[in-house]
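Sample pair:
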Amino acid sequence: MMNMAAEIIRRFGRQSKRSAQGFTLIELMIVITIIVILATLAVPRVERQIKTAKYAAQQHDLSVLNTAIQHYTEDKEMPPNSLDDLRTAGYIGSIPNDPITGQQDWNPVQCDELFSADQTSSQGICGVQSSSDQDSGQDSSGSQPYGSN
């Protein structure tokens, strides 16, 4: 019995010649090829998801800005002259950067009509649109400028 246990320990205690050598070059090349194929499949999907997320954030920012313009116009009975008017009046905390361009390069939509009898001037902005070229062929205005319905 003791002899059998010693034989098992001796057989399994020794490292085989193969495990001492490591992996062969062909095994490493196969593993690397599989990793490259999987990465090639994953990268376009990740890039597409990033673009979709930036577009969704852009649309949300446009909606918030256009809603703030609408509330400002209703409260003050005149449209704001710039997006900075919304910030100083407290309708927005700060002017967001366009997620696609990374800059505050929103295109204001100028007003050309009066919205109430008390309004003295139609000068100002009724809405805002994105200035990015990468709107994927989709509407880049977020929501309709105030008064354009």
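Residues 134-149 have pLDDT under 50 and may be disordered.
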